[in-house]
């Protein structure tokens, strides 16, 4: 008997709000959403998720497999890099232990051809594959020691970018401007995780990913990449077996920090970015949700592809019309049914991501001039964001910073915040 709605399993190791937003968008597109995630994940505050499965950082592959068996999903979507790594590792383990079961087929159907999994987390190799596919990329190479670094500097000069494999969110990226700065950054990026931090994460967060590298003193691979003077941009795609079904492209207007994630973006149409995404998707036989980061060169406007995000990104939930609605495209790919995407959520090309820009600066002008992407249809999620802001940032919410929706005027968190504001 055919399922009435395709089941999508969101897999995440982080308590990241964009995963909750994606769950809501997938539900709105017609999917049944389940999630394997850490306890107290924001998605639990939404009306989207039908069932939650526990993610156990001490036994991640076991918890993922258990969630897959229990939910019997049609598609699995990783919400962060570590979740993607876990799915790759689960595929490899299942290939050895149970090659005929459906777990491996599900992972390939959801992520793409398994032969290309190793490319996703090797920055230099990804750039080489993209270049071979005819995509414009900056010069990039693995730097194994200080001699390699000095040789690179002699050829390429400053500024230059150093990036460590196995990192995300800008944590393993340094832009350096002189030899001393470059050598210090190289040493720090290459260092194994600090044992105390790894043990703390294992005990408190039940996350063992840093434990073995720390105990066995495994050094990270560091890459040097040519610095492109220009503006940052990003693309997100939904694809199936190497064919792009929907895509959105943005210029980055604001970020949480210099090498961190975007908080405000501006929608653009860029043929070179779209072409690059299509070429890479075809070359790597990608399926599912993926993101690409670019630099738009100031002098020429040329789009340089600098890296891939092999998972859902923070703009993936946005419904921006036909061909620009990733959740709708995912539904169509899995269900085989055509649906008419809803009207774009905004005609304003500038979008302030919630709660990212608000957390960065509650007085940001972008919260007024851009479309502020607040999920008013999910009041519990908004209240959770407000609570986190007040608890961790010790900041204030004013009426001009986040305009109240009628459904939230009587909410406990909103009322408490406004009472605190008036008391000042």
Walk me through the structure.
With 424 residues, the protein is an alpha/beta fold. The protein has four domains: 7-111, Rossmann fold; 139-225, ATP-grasp fold, A domain (Dna Ligase, domain 1, 2-Layer Sandwich), CATH 3.30.1490; 230-335, 2-Layer Sandwich (D-amino Acid Aminotransferase, Chain A, domain 1); 350-423, no CATH class. It has 15 helices and 15 strands. The protein has helices at 17-29, 60-71, 81-97, 102-111, 123-132, 146-156, 179-190, 195-204, 211-215, 271-284, 326-335, 356-360, 366-369, 379-393, 412-423, and strands spanning 7-11, 32-37, 49-54, 75-78, 140-143, 160-164, 173-176, 222-226, 230-240, 243-255, 262-267, 288-297, 303-309, 350-353, 371-373. The strands form three sheets. It has a seven-stranded mixed beta sheet. Strands 3-2-1-4 form a four-stranded parallel beta sheet. Strands 5-8-6-7 form a four-stranded antiparallel beta sheet, with helices on both faces. The chain starts with 6 loop residues before the first strand and ends with a helix. Residues 395-424 have low confidence and may be disordered.
In short:
This protein has 4 domains: 105 residues, Rossmann fold (3-Layer(aba) Sandwich); 87 residues, Dna Ligase, domain 1 (2-Layer Sandwich); 106 residues, 2-Layer Sandwich (D-amino Acid Aminotransferase, Chain A, domain 1), CATH 3.30.470; 74 residues, no CATH class.
């Amino acid at each position: 008997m055919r399922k009435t709605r395709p089941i999508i399993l969101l897999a995440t190791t982080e308590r990241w709000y964009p995963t909750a937003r994606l769950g809501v968008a997938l539900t709105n597109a017609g999917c049944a959403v389940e999630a394997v995630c850490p306890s107290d994940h924001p998605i639990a505050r939404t009306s989207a998720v039908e069932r939650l499965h526990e993610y156990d950082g001490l036994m991640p592959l076991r918890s993922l497999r258990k969630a897959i068996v229990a939910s019997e999903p049609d598609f699995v979507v990783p919400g962060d890099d570590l979740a993607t790594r876990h799915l790759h590792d689960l595929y490899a383990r299942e290939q050895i232990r149970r090659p005929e079961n459906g777990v491996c087929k599900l992972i390939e159907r959801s992520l793409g051809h398994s032969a290309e999994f190793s490319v996703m987390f090797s920055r230099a190799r990804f750039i080489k594959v993209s270049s071979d596919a005819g995509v414009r990329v900056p010069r990039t190479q693995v730097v194994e020691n200080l001699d390699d670094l000095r040789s690179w500097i002699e050829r390429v000069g400053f500024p230059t970018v150093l990036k460590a494999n196995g990192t995300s969110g800008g944590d393993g990226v340094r832009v350096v401007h002189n030899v001393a700065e470059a050598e210090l950054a190289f040493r720090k990026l290459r260092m194994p995780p600090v044992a105390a931090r790894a043990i703390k994460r294992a005990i408190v967060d039940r996350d063992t990913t840093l434990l073995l590298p720390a105990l066995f003193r495994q050094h990270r691979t560091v890459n040097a990449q040519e610095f492109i003077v220009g503006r940052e941009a990003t693309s997100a795609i939904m694809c199936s077996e190497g064919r792009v079904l929907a895509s959105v492209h943005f210029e980055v207007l604001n970020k949480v920090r210099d090498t961190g994630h975007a908080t405000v973006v501006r929608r653009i149409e860029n043929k070179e970015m779209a072409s690059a995404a299509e070429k890479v998707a075809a070359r790597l036989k990608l399926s599912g949700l993926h993101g690409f980061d670019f630099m738009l060169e100031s002098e020429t406007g040329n789009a340089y592809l600098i890296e891939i995000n092999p998972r859902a990104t923070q703009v993936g939930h946005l419904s921006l019309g036909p061909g620009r609605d990733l959740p709708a495209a995912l539904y169509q790919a899995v269900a085989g049914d055509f649906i008419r995407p809803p009207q774009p959520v905004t005609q304003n090309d500038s979008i302030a991501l919630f709660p990212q820009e608000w957390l960065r600066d509650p007085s940001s002008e972008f919260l007024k001039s851009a479309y502020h992407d607040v999920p008013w249809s999910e009041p519990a999620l908004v209240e959770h964001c407000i609570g986190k802001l007040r608890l961790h940032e010790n900041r204030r919410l004013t009426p001009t910073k986040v305009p109240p929706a009628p459904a939230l005027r009587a909410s406990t968190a909103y009322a408490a915040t406004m009472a605190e504001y008036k008391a000042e």
